[in-house]
Amino acid sequence: MNFLFDIVYKKVVFDMTKVECILRPNKIKEVKDALGSIGIKGLTVTEAVGCGLQKGHIDMELEAWDNELSITLLPKTKLEMVVTDDVVDKVIDTIIKAARTGQVGDGKIFTYHVNNAIRIRTGETGEKAV
């Protein structure tokens, strides 16, 4: 077996979760700082546009949206990180506490099981690569 095959194709299961969230852009610093305070070091931040229940509207009653034909895309920020399963609940709670305003448009959090992570530079896998 060669080194690359051992790293990429080895059937090893790691307990990791990708946490992806869509947030208000003005909340990203607060969320990033809160995650840093619980030891989360690696994350990816991407500017995005989108709409959900809010349908691109600001300060409107939900009932009024039923008759809307056009949807405006609002600026959002996507935050992604892979963490070990033992801290997922703490990460989610931290994001919610830092990002919640109580208004429509606060965002969403999604979680995905991750089979493996590989650090390209060293070939480390699993938790060591995160």
What would you say this structure looks like, in words?
The protein is of the alpha+beta class and 130 residues long. It has one domain (24-58, 70-129): 2-Layer Sandwich (Alpha-Beta Plaits), CATH 3.30.70.120. The protein is built from three helices and four strands, in the order αβαββαβ. It is globular. The model has no long low-confidence stretch (mean pLDDT 84). Pfam families: P-II. This is P-II family nitrogen regulator.
Summary of the model, kept short:
The chain has 130 residues and is of the alpha+beta class.
Alpha plus pi helix count: 3
Beta fraction of the residues? 25-35%
According to CATH, what is the topology?
Answer: Alpha-Beta Plaits
Low-confidence stretches: none
Q: Kindly state the mean pLDDT as a whole number?
A: 84
CATH 2nd-level architecture: 2-Layer Sandwich
Structural class of the helices, strands and pairings?
alpha+beta
Strand element count: 4
Main sheet overview: 4 strands, antiparallel
Q: Walk across the major sheet and give the strand order.
A: 2-3-1-4
* Amount of helix: 10-25%
Overall 3D form:
globular
The CATH class turns out to be Alpha Beta
Radius of gyration: 18 Å
Question: Domains counted in the coordinates: how many?
Answer: 1
> Termini distance?
25 Å
